[in-house]
Amino acid sequence: MKMxxxxxxxxxxxxxxxGVAIKLQGLGKQYGPLNVLQGLDLDIAPGxxxxxxxxxxxxxxxxxRLLAGLEKQDQGDLRIDGxxxxxxxxxxxxxxxxxxxxxxxxxxxxxxxxxxGKWQPSALDVLAQVGLADRAGDWPVVLSGGQxxxxxLAKALIHTPQLLLLDEPLGALDALTRIEMQDLIERLWxxxxxxxxxxxxxxxxxxxxxxRVVLIESGRITLDRKIPLPRPRMRGxxxxxxxxxxxxxxxxxxxxxxxxx
Amino acid sequence: MKIFxxxxxxxxxxxxxxxxxxxxxxxxxxxxxxxxRVLPAPMDIFTSFVDIYESGELWIHLKTSCGRAFGGFxxxxxxxxxxxxLTGSSRIMERLLDTSVQMIRNIPHLALTPLVILWFxxxxxxxxxxxxxxxxxxxYLNTFHGIRSVDVQLIEMGRAYxxxxxxxxxxxxxxxxxxxxxxxxxxxxxxxxxxxxxAETIAASSGLGYMAMNARELLxxxxxxxxxxxxxVLGKLADVLARAxxxxxxxxxPNYQIARA
Lengths: 261, 261
Description:
The complex is a heterodimer of chains A (261) and B (261).
Chain A: H1 2-10, E1 22-31, E2 34-44, E3 49-53, H2 60-68, E4 75-80, E5 83-84, E6 92-95, H3 107-111, H4 120-129, H5 145-157, E7 163-167, H6 175-192, E8 195-199, H7 203-209, E9 212-217, E10 220-226, H8 238-251
Parallel strand pairs in A: 3-8, 3-9, 6-7, 7-8
Antiparallel strand pairs in A: 1-2, 1-4, 4-5, 9-10
Chain B: H1 7-30, H2 42-55, H3 57-89, H4 91-105, H5 113-120, H6 124-148, H7 152-160, H8 165-202, H9 208-217, H10 221-249
Helix pairs in contact in B: 2-10, 3-4, 3-6, 3-8, 3-9, 5-6, 6-8, 8-9, 8-10, 9-10
């Protein structure tokens, strides 16, 4: 209870929160005979924004579920801020591909799910930050897909997460809404300075948002590329397009040099 | 189609057939086509209604019958919901209880009437027991089914947000199962009236069924018909109640939402 109240009290303020550090060593996960992840090593610095790309079924979502504490790895070591991850962490929040709002609760009550005490003011505050303060009393069914994801983002933010896991949260949105949401998430990330891990199959999205793009192919990391572009990033410009092209070629399994053949 | 635009006429159309039938019935009974013993005229039934109402007898019988019906419903419905929540949310409880419940369910509860009379005599307990038994199974089955069909994504979301078992049940599982539970409740209300009628007709010393059986011995066909009509009205009232519950508790559900202007 006390923990929760502290969390609420600090919601909306971003002082001295720098996100968590993540260290993965030799991480492996099997579903029956299927090797989903194997020998995966990855270091993420506090406050870093890392995008994980890869084809469907490459194990990127599994990695995210392991980090969320929803599943347990079969091999290897998973440390968050030096601590072994054994159970769900209170400072880790997930944004799923679907908004997963409770249809029987108003937008405001969805944001405050599971909280006790006087959480309503902070819920309104985070809703205002995602631009939906005026929809607090509505049912989720009347919202558009983009608005639902905004609520889902607010629901994560009220807990002032130190690690935000994004499991293709924008995959189902139309192109324009998606860009708006990318900007919103980037802005809030800059404000709150949490560590962010975005799983996506959209290379442009990864390049637009992340400090680093990591490619996973059949359970292993095959590319770890820093994105040195200054923010805010211009989606159309030359450097952006070049980086996007480079990563995309990797995803498609072709090297740039092979194009001549 | 133009005349259907007129709401009053349109609303009246559905009453045309019943009113005509009532008219034919009245004329038929008065002209002697239909014997008084078979079916007394509607006006005679109305007169006996006024008589019984003024003597205060109607109120007593009505109160007794409703008390039995809703008392039995409350007991049976609560047990049904409780069992359904238990077996629905725990595999072990399902293993332990479901087979037994299904076996008992296959005995038509009205077949137990002679046994129940042996156990409890013709007192209130016998009727409460029969009604509770009849109501329990539809409520149980629909609760179980409702809980099992709650969106697994929402349950996982609750898990990722670290909800306690109680919050999980209260905020996600129970509301998610509620549409199905209410189907069980509506079905249970039907069983409730049916069982009440049978139980009161076979053995009772008060209540609407007793009133009808007593009138039969005195050849008061009008009172018998009146009792049947009252059962119909009560059944309709129970249905209206169930609909009101659906509208109140499922107002978040798109299928139950009243169109907004």
